[in-house]
Design brief:
Blueprint (H helix, E strand, L loop, with lengths): L28 H8 L5 H19 L5 E4 L4 H12 L4 E6 L6 H11 L4 E5 L3 H15 L4 H17 L4 E4 L3 H6 L12 H7 L7 H8 L14 H7 L2 E4 L8 H9 L25 H12 L3 H11 L5 H11 L6 E2 L2 E2 H6 L5 H11 L29
Parallel strand pairs: 1-2, 2-3, 4-5
Antiparallel strand pairs: 6-7
Length: 385
């Protein structure tokens, strides 16, 4: 049986969250990392960043000064805005999502209008959709292909075009809570990707051996060799380790430059300004709920608690009311339409969901069959308190 679930005494993250650590007082590492931000001299941090950027700009000469991986979302808008403010000429690289929304396309176009060159890389959609269904069925993640290409593609272009600096957003271990030893990491490298990139132990080579996908069709899914990265001196930098990261503020900064919010709270969230590009994202977040008993609603509640935008009591009410809903709609598009792209029926999808539902977290009947709400979502044994 699963050991007793602990909920952070400050925010509402449960101990089922992967890599989350708690101190002796029952406070999670994410809350402690945020608390420690008050001790940071952010002006000094920013000055360090400026020195690093100045050095790379000088070395770049007539080449791009850096690469910024972009989705078109609020955070990539913020990254581009800040780097332009520092006087750099970045190359923006978008690893195209498989199921781009209308608002996602608008925001990608809006970002390019900030005055930057952009490269949008698309992978073979026929193979991509086969991969999406395969990883949905085998590891419970429809977005595995996206998770890997948002990292591999910018690194590949950095190597090909001899652009040694890649500017990423926040360090997730600092923002969300992860191993304490990793929360101060400044660099994103291959080791970080393999441990924290959301690959769930699945590798590109598995696509070749398990699915029979030819190696030549997996070029964009393949990380450059360590030898090449070392030779080219490619370095990935977390911008959020030099600036006080806040997704909420980033969204409103981006809005001033043309970033468009959704017309209501995004399904499966409590805000109007995130995950607007990928129509498969709702499915991805739902599987997090099935596996670990929390989802994007919980994430935003925790971030808002730390920043005093919500009380813990308010967050518990919001989370228990909105978390874990079945992904029937997303950004106005039906689940059926999204599943059609990967040749999956709704009934097949429900059966896959049942396979990955953690029965230690969700109620079952005497025959060990998962008990569900009317919308087909499973019922938690214990709500977050």
């Amino acid at each position: 049986m699963l050991s007793k679930i602990i909920t952070c005494k400050n925010c509402i993250y449960p101990s089922t969250k992967p890599d989350l650590e708690f101190d002796k007082s029952g406070i999670c590492q994410g809350c402690n990392a945020y608390k420690n931000r008050k001790k940071i001299n952010w002006k000094k941090k920013e000055n360090t960043l400026k020195k690093i950027l100045k050095e790379y700009k000088k070395k770049a000469e007539n080449n791009y000064d850096c690469i910024i991986p972009i989705s078109g979302g609020k955070d990539s808008h913020y990254q581009v805005i800040k780097i332009l403010e520092y006087g750099l000429n970045p190359l923006c690289v978008n690893a195209k999502t498989d199921k781009l929304s209308e608002i996602g396309r608008h925001n990608l176009n809006s970002l390019s209008k900030l005055g930057v060159d952009c490269i949008e890389v698309s992978t073979d959609p026929l193979i991509r959709r086969k991969i999406n269904k395969f990883t949905l069925k085998t590891i419970g993640d429809i977005s595995w292909a996206e998770h890997i290409t948002i990292f591999t593609i910018p690194f590949r272009i950095a190597c090909d075009l001899n652009i040694p600096l890649i500017i990423w957003g926040e360090n997730p271990q600092n923002e969300n809570g992860g191993p304490k030893a990793k929360e101060k990491a400044v660099n994103l490298d291959r080791a970080w990707l393999e441990e924290f990139g959301g690959l769930l132990g699945f590798r590109t080579s598995d696509l070749e051996s398990l699915m029979g996908v030819p190696k030549k069709k997996l070029i964009q899914y393949t990380f450059p060799s360590s030898k090449i990265i070392k030779k080219k001196k490619i370095k990935g930098l977390f911008l959020g380790q030099f600036l006080p990261w806040d997704g909420h503020k980033n969204a409103f900064t981006a809005k001033k430059y043309g970033f468009k919010f959704y017309n209501k709270e995004v399904e499966g969230s409590i805000v109007k300004y995130e995950n607007l590009d990928n129509l498969q994202m709702r499915i991805h977040d739902y599987f997090k709920f099935l596996k670990y008993g929390y989802d994007r609603v919980t994430d935003w509640c925790c971030w808002n608690i730390r920043r005093k935008r919500l009380s813990r009591k308010e967050s518990i009410k919001i989370n228990n009311r909105k978390s874990g809903k079945f992904p029937s709609q997303y950004l106005g598009v039906s689940l059926k339409d999204v599943l059609n792209e990967i040749d999956c029926t709704e009934q097949e999808f429900i059966e896959i969901c049942d396979t990955f539902t953690n029965k230690k977290l969700f109620k079952c009947d005497i025959n060990n069959k998962i008990l569900k709400n009317k919308d087909q979502s499973p019922i938690l044994r214990n709500k977050i308190t």
